[in-house]
Each structure stands twice: as structure tokens, then as C-alpha cells.
Amino acid sequence: MAKIDVVKIGNKEELEDFISLPYSIYRDCAQYVPDLEVDIREFLDPKENPSFDFCNIQPFVAYREGAPVGRIVGIVNHKANERWQTRNVRFTFIEFIDDKEVSDALICAVEQWGKTLGMDKIEGPMGATDFDKEGMLVEDFNLAGTVNTFYNHAYYPQHLEAMGFEKEVDWVQIRIKVPQEVPARYARTSQYVREQLGLRVVKLTNEDIKKRNAGRKVFDLLNEAYAPLFGFAPFSDEQIDLFIKKYMKLMDKQLLTVVVNEKNEFVGVAITMVSLTRAMQKAKGHIWPLGWWYLLNAVLRKREKTVEMMLVAVRPDYQGLGVNALFFDDLIPIYNKYGFETAETLPQLETNVRELSQWKPLNPEYVKRRRCYIKTI
Q1: Which domain range does residue 236 map to?
Q2: 329 touches 186 (CB < 8 A)
Q3: What are the residues facing 89 on neighbouring strands?
Q4: Which has the least CB within 10 A, 1, 75, 124, 145?
Q5: Which residue, among 52, 74, 56, 48, has the nearest Cα to 243 in the 3D structure?
Q6: Which tens digit of pLDDT belongs to each residue from 325-364?
Q7: What's the CATH number where 297 sits?
Q8: Does residue 91 form part of some domain?
Q9: Number of Cα atoms under 13 Å in the Cβ half of residue 42
């Protein structure tokens, strides 16, 4: 069989091969949700992605007889390595045909590149930040993916394990049926924290984000709350500015819940949004000519039956005091008003027992286990 050539992306044609490869790998896969091509281009562009300020990022494409058969991105996050006292090279955006020569060649390319930068272990899939997609799907391949998670074929983890990769951490997603009423446990707790702790829910406006620094306060809270979590590195000012511009101003603010204390300090935030899975599948990775319409239609007409609970964060000194009950007390009536029937979280660390336990009154279903793999180079 012909040799596999893995090359660093160096021209427009190789970039296009990198971007288009998943369309052939997932051609007949109803569960796959494509990325927007513009997002991939921006991620790989040092002028557009502020992660380049503290990361080395290198994309590769694998070819056999001139045809693209695999892709991968290597990342050395110097901020995370310094914080966690590691020398890890990460990999992400890995895609390959069901051929072990291809997957071996891709991983080997990232390993060798990482070694030149002094790295001694390889882990992934992990991005440059916690806002990037993380983890390889290892269960529930029959369930549809989401906009903010990777979907992959069942043979992907088999290839990695055959190379000697081992589990580093797992994430699971929580799926619940939206109740018609706020469960009594949440209602009692939310009343208590309002009366005894002086906490209250506020809804942000674009004016708050633009002129009252509310967007930055949200991200400062995320930095503080997520600091102890696996692999986390604080968002930089440049990243925060980008996220605010790209996401926060466009969100339905009714689906974003902020909890403040008597000093009007942000002590909790829950960021949720209507599911864009079907809209992204219809868009097929393109904003034009009709992708923008599919996405806008999903957000504005509210006909989707699933809401995605993107991020939940509570300031460390308020954790365990019932702040999460305020999120549910606020959002469940809104979900019913919007006609949402199910809610699904982003991947949550299986070791984060406190986070996972908050869902018990809602009879959660644990789905879509994802894994970060690691091995010594």
C-alpha cells in the first residue's frame, strides 16, 4: 500500500484539504454535526486566534497518493503546562479514515513536533482553551452530536488504544426532560438563598455587556470558578474580548442567568442556548448562501425542542450554598415558555461530583462519554 505523507499546512490547497476532509469521512453519518468553516479558519489563523499568544499551534494533513486521508492539530499550551507543571503536547481536530497507518502517522507527526518543543507526553483531544471542543467520543455513537462537541466514529478510540494511549479523564453529558414545574427541592433552596444570603437573579442586556463591563465580569467569574478543573488555563484579556464580541452579544439573554449578591457582585452564571444541531447540519459548514438563515431561524423562531446548557459556574466561596437552585428556578419556567422538552449539558468531568450531583432531582440520563487520552512520547 502507498506511503502516508503527513505535511504541515503550508499553502491554501492544504488548508482546504484540512477543512473539507470530514465531509468525506462522515458523508453518510446522520449524527455528525459539522463545524462552520469560518471558525476553523479563524482557529488556525494567528491574526484571528488570540490563543497563539501563549500557544504553539500546528495543523497537519495526511495524504496517500495525493488524496487527503487524515488531519490533526498539535497544540503546546505554555500557560496550561506552566500552571499544571506538565510538558504536554495536545492534539485536536483529529480525523482519519479507518486505517491504522494513517492514525499512527498523524499521532507520530504531533509527537515529533512536540518533542522539538521539549514536550514528553501527548494528550487529547484537547483545544487551546476550555471553550474549544474536548474529548473523544467513546460511547453512544448512535446519538446526534452537538455544535460544541466532537463527534467521531467508533473506530477512533480503538486506534488510539492500540497505540498505547490510556484514559486521562472522562467527561459525560447530562440529558434531562424539562419538568413542567420547578422541583420542590430547588424551589425551597432558591427561596432560602434569596432570603438568607441576599442573592438574586438578574438578566443582562446588550447595554450591560457593552457599557457596564458585564461580559468581562462573567469571564472573570469563569476564570475563578474553573481554576481547579482539569487542564484549565485562565482566559486572557484578548480571548475574553473575542468571546464577548463573537458570542455574548448574539445570545438570547433570557437563557442566560446571572446571580448577584447584595454588593451586586457576580457569584454565579448559567449560560444556555437553543440547540443548533439541526441548523448546523443544514448549513453544512457554510454561512453562505443559506447557513446564516438556518442558524438565525433556530435562535429566533424557537422551534427546536432541545436547549443546551453550555456553562454553569459558581464563585468558589458560594459553592455548595444553593446558588444552582436559583439557576433552575429561573430557567425551568423560561424553558417551558419556549417549548423546550429536553435539556443537555456540555461534557462535565466525571470526577466533578458536586457538579453532577446537582442534577439528581431531575432524574438525569448520563450520555455521550468522552475521553481525554494520554501517553508518554
Answers
A1: 179-340
A2: yes
A3: 122
A4: 1
A5: 48
A6: 999 999 999 999 999 999 999 999 999 888 888 888 999 9
A7: 3.40.630.30
A8: yes
A9: 13
